[in-house]
Amino acid sequence: MLLSVYHLTEYFYPDEARDSFNELWLYPVDDHRQGLLEFRLSITPESMPRSRQDYFHNRVYDFHVTRPHKQLRIEMQAKVVTFAVPKPSSVPVQVLSSLESRFFEFLAPTPRIPLHHNWLELLEVRRPKPSEDLHGYLLEVTEHLNRILSYNTQATQVDTPLIQFVEGRAGVCQDYAQAMLAVLRSVGIPARYVSGYLATGVGSEGSHAWVEAFVPGSGWCGYDPTNNSTITEQYVKKAHGRDYDDCPPLKGLRRGGGKESLNVLVKVESLQTPLTRS
């Protein structure tokens, strides 16, 4: 599937801001599941971004706006072709026990995903049997969380603690993904947070988030509890990490400016696939 992605972020300040240092996780991944065909980044006031790879091998752009400004505008445009992926291999859950040291960082607690709570009890999720199919269990958890949780953009903020979301049972894709990460890490399944975009479905109006779990023989496989779906050609991945803090769309610091206001616009559209014969 050929998809175009447009992501606009605008900050407005009542007073002049200066020395604005920022990092962007907006560059779509180029891998076996998707190919990046075009990418354009525009920053106003004009600034020359520098790209680098972070610890998790995500492409990150850094920029510094030195001049005084009352508005910061960041536009990203991309064209991505996505591909269908085969069903994950059928392997028992118990094969993961020998991989704990390899994937420790995707099993360990983080400030956003603490593991001292009994997430299985709080979310009414059963512990998997050692001999059962790993992919089947991941589908079950995906469906279960989708059924017991409600999507509500007014229920949580970006810094709402996970326990508050779980107790309230309502939030957005970021919350769904981190709740699933808490469950999977609690039962020894390596899992990571993914940020990206969705062409159609719940959460397609902005940046989207889902989970990738490691399935031996298949690698990292995507699951979206917000939409009760595996990752299809409708999804565009930007980055992954332990939780939201490792790959937010943007984060930065500035001097002055006062209390900001924010405007975000995301559009993902399906184009004619380049593989279609006329």
TrEMBL record:
Keyword Magnesium (UniProt): no
Residue stretches spanning the membrane: none
InterPro entries: Bac_transglu_N, Papain-like_cys_pep_sf, Transglutaminase-like
GO molecular function, one term: protein-glutamine gamma-glutamyltransferase activity
Location of the Transglutaminase-like domain: 165-227
Domain of life: Bacteria
Keyword tags: Acyltransferase, Transferase
Record EC number: 2.3.2.13
Protein name, as recorded: Protein-glutamine gamma-glutamyltransferase
